[in-house]
Amino acid sequence: MDFSFTPDQTLLKNSARSFLDEHCKPATVRLLWDDPRGESPALWKEMAQLGWLGLSLPEAHGGSGLGMVETALLLEELGRAAYPGPLWPTMLVASAIASHGTDEQKKRWLPAVASGDARAAVTLLDSDLDWNPDAVSTRADKTPTGWQLSGLKRYVAWGHVADVLLVPARAPEGVSLFLVDPSAAGIGWTPMMNMDPGTRLADLKLDRVPVRGEDRLGAPGAGTPALLSLLRRGAAGAAAEMLGASRRCLDMAVGYAKVREAFGQPIGSFQAIRHKCSDMLLETENSHAAVYYAAWALDAGAEDAATAASIAKSYVGDAARKVCGEAIQVHGGIGFTWEYDLHMYFKRAKALEAQYGDAEYHRELILRHVAA
Amino acid sequence: MDLNYSPEDGAFRDKTRRWLEANMPKDDLKTLAERKSWHRQLYEAGYVGMLWPQEYGGWGATAMQQAIVQDEMARIGAPPAINGLGIGFIGPTIIVHGTEWQKQRYLKKMLTAEEIWCQLYSEPNAGSDLAGLKTRAEDAGDHFVVNGQKIWTSSGPIADWGILLARTDSKVAKHKGISCFLLNMRQPGVEVRPLKQISGHSLFSEVFMTNARADKQDLIGSLSEGWAIAQTTLGYERGGNSLGRVTRYAIAFHQLVRATRQLKRNGKPLLDDPVVRAKMGKLYAELEVQRYAGLRVLSTLNKGERPGPESSITKLSYTEFEKRYYETALEILGPWGQMMTAREEFEEIDTSSGEAGTWATAFLWSRAGTIYSGSSEIQKNIIGERVLGLPKEVRADRLKA
Predict the structure, then answer these.
(1) What ipTM did this prediction achieve?
(2) Which of A59, A203, B6, B248 is most buried (CB neighbours < 10 A)?
(3) Do A274 and B384 touch (CB under 8 A)?
(4) What architecture is the B7-82 domain classified under in CATH?
């Protein structure tokens, strides 16, 4: 039993932090917020060269074959930097292809993802906004050459930069997964502005979009378990990013409380501020335990892995909102300004709360498991 | 990072479980003699004093093994060992600061519960501000004469000995004039009066000392070193019992699930109500997070690292959680949650007092955790100052000193 990181894991974390401190500064994030594309292709290439994009992919396909713990370490650092871009959806779709794809599909996409030549997005919500994979209403109808997809996918993250979309749709056999070309005929995008400009969302309308037979991922009707697995990993990873946002905000709040003076002394000497910071640390450390327990459980195939992922997502979502929000409170008025960086992390954490299953969805999963 | 139990720890768990199944008392332990006898049995099996060095009668076990024993005892609902204060931190304090004579005289009898120990720290006007204590110990040549009052003393009526903080020098700054003694509770100058708590139980007492005698050989450390010694003592009190505690919460949670299956709302089981489900899902998540955090602390302890100020985070976390836990449970259970005697099967659970009780008992007891052993406010001061490095507050008593 050892809850601490191995030297290799610590090395990964430290090198990710120093890279991001240099290449994904708050000023970089602000530039990308104003950029129509919203992410940096140059940064993407560098992250690929560092081996991040292929971190968890099989070595045979250009990856490093590492696990969810390493992925979470990386995502925590990305959250700490408020990195805007499609890294996590790309990694998730690539993992799904690695698990369920044909040799052809793996050869086509995995090396391209690992080398930074392909980005991916996943569409998890249909028009009724239900996270339950069984609720998919987008239709997949058979055609002589494959399939034809019709429906509305909502709040799709980073679809506008993706080279491939993972789209669940209801086939006659049940929920099935498809790898869809974003430039295919019948696809219409409606971009929208999220509170967090580092999370680019759009609605995706599919109007009889043709998909080749060989672009179905996994067996027809086998989509639900694959999606549940993707949601689990997605949830644990999002929790890691939110943890990173918490850490950054806690550091900023504590740093500020040490130097900002009021009534002739640093405000951190007042119990009202000190106790707030202690509560923030408590929530951050508990979040750490939740994130890495879940990541380990997913890697180890532990019995409670699914529950642990849901626990991490719902717990850390609440905690990060509280920690980042209280950091604004500690700063007072300056924390509420656009110029000050705090809102980047506050908004990122909030945006992630509504990704890969919200807290209500995950709490229901938790209870179903415990009270089965 | 590897959260699997080692094969050795797994084997130890199996062995412990088998021992408990074979030796668990059949009936409730009613008298002190019965509880002492069970304690003795646990000690001889190697399940008490596990972390103590072998030279003082301990077992030199690992923190993980100790946690496993507590976990298995919680699982099976075994009555706890007694003398927890003595074994948990008074003994370790004697091991660190005591004389050889003190070690020989007190430690073994503490482990075997032949002598029961209590703690004489808090006073009516010195709780969080412990250094403001008023009890005096005056040098009378071959012994000290102790006068004053202590409060919130656990095990007071059954205690044979107490660890005492008393003022030996009132001319210096308040935390510099305190000394630490071992006090014989069985003497005419010591009177113990049980206090009735909000739960109706009397687990704490007031202790009045009137010209009580503390022998010179029972001074711990040097004169006026008591405050520093108390700091290490408090340090031992925080940290350890990570798995057993959460196992008790989890067992109670399954009772709650059973209860919500039996109780109805709008003609359907309460468990089918979406509002109740959301509350319970959140509660279970928080409960598990306490377990994960406990594993993290345990893995640190298991490497032989002493719990530092970070253990304040653990104490703050689980005691505050415990309040939310039972508040939510009572909210869900309605009038069933408020019974002080159990009539339905789901009404009885293990409470944090270490005894079986009802949800209401547990709810009332949960108010104690954020006060004893350093209140939540004191923990937050410690975390702020010693973990986060925030500046010390300007305090009226520090200005004077």
Answers:
(1) 0.96
(2) B248
(3) yes
(4) Orthogonal Bundle (1.10)
Q: Inspect the interface and report whether the beta carbons of B1 and A3 lie closer than 8 Å.
A: yes
What pLDDT was estimated at residue B238? 47
Q: Chain A residue closest to B294 (CA)?
A: A289
pLDDT tens digits, residue range B302-339?
887 776 778 889 999 999 999 999 999 999 999 989 99
Which amino acid would we find at residue B89? F
Burial A209-218 (b: 16+ CB within 10 A, else e): bbbeeebbbb
Task: Tell me if A364 and B277 make a contact (CB, 8 A cut-off).
Answer: yes
Place of tokens 């656009």: A338
Question: β-strand A120-122 against A164-171: which pairing, if any?
Answer: parallel
Contact flag B253-A370 (C-beta cutoff 8 Å): yes
A180 closest CA partner among A144, A156, A199, A201: A156
Tokens 């996409």 sit on residue: A109
Return the beta strands (E) in B117-260 as ranges.
Answer: 117-120, 136-139, 143-154, 161-167, 178-184, 190-195, 204-215, 219-220
DSSP annotation of B123 reads B
Q: At what angle do helices A223-259 and A87-100 cross, to 10 degrees?
A: 150
- Sign of the C-alpha dihedral, residues A10, A16, A21, A22? positive
User: Could you say which of B1, B377, B385 has the minimum Cβ distance to residue A6?
Assistant: B1
pTM of this structure: 0.95
Regarding the domain with residue range A121-221, which homologous superfamily does it belong to in the CATH classification?
Butyryl-CoA Dehydrogenase, subunit A, domain 2 (2.40.110.10)
Q: Where are the beta strands (DSSP E) in chain A?
A: 120-122, 125-126, 139-143, 146-157, 164-171, 174-180, 187-192, 201-212, 216-217, 261-262, 265-266
Distances (CA, A) of A60 to A51, A65, B223: 14, 9, 70
Q: Which residue has the higher pLDDT, B208 or B231?
A: B208
Is residue A169 helix, strand or coil? strand
Residue A151's region, left for phi above 0, alpha for psi from -120 to 50, else beta, is: left
What kind and span of H or E run contains A31? helix A26-34
Contact B401, A279 (CB under 8 A): no
Nearest Cβ partner for A315 among B271, B286, B384? B286
Look up residue A52 and give its DSSP letter: -
B388 and A277 in contact by Cβ < 8 A? yes
Residue type, A149: L
- The active-site residue out of B72, B123, B237, B322 is B237
Q: Where are the domains of chain B?
A: 7-82, 116-224, 238-400
Phi, psi of A93 (to 5 degrees): -65, -40
Q: Where are the strands (E) in B49-133, listed by range? A: 117-120
Fold of A224-370: Butyryl-CoA Dehydrogenase, subunit A; domain 3 (1.20.140)
Quick check: A258 and B4 CB within 8 A? no
Contact B5 A278 (CB under 8 A): no
Sorted by sequence, the CB contacts under 8 Å of residue A250 that are 6+ apart come out as A277, A280, A281, A284, A323, A327
Q: Measured between beta carbons, which residues in chain A are less than 8 angstroms from residue B6?
A: 1
Shortest distance, CA A108 to any CA of chain B (angstroms): 33
* DSSP secondary structure of A68-79: HHHHHHHHHHHH
**Beta bridge mates, B350:** B356
Chain A residue numbers with beta carbons less than 8 Å from the beta carbon of B389 are: 254, 258
Q: What are the tens digits of pLDDT across the range B83-125? A: 998 998 899 999 999 999 999 999 999 999 999 999 999 999 9
Q: Which of B1, B313, B385 sits opposite A2 (nearest CB)?
A: B1
Please give the CATH architecture assigned to the domain spanning B238-400: Up-down Bundle (1.20)
Best mutation target, A267, A323, A365, A370, to test chain B (most B CBs within 10 A): A370
A258 → closest Cβ in B292, B300, B390: B390
3-class SS of residue B29: coil
Cα nearest neighbour of A313 on chain B: B285
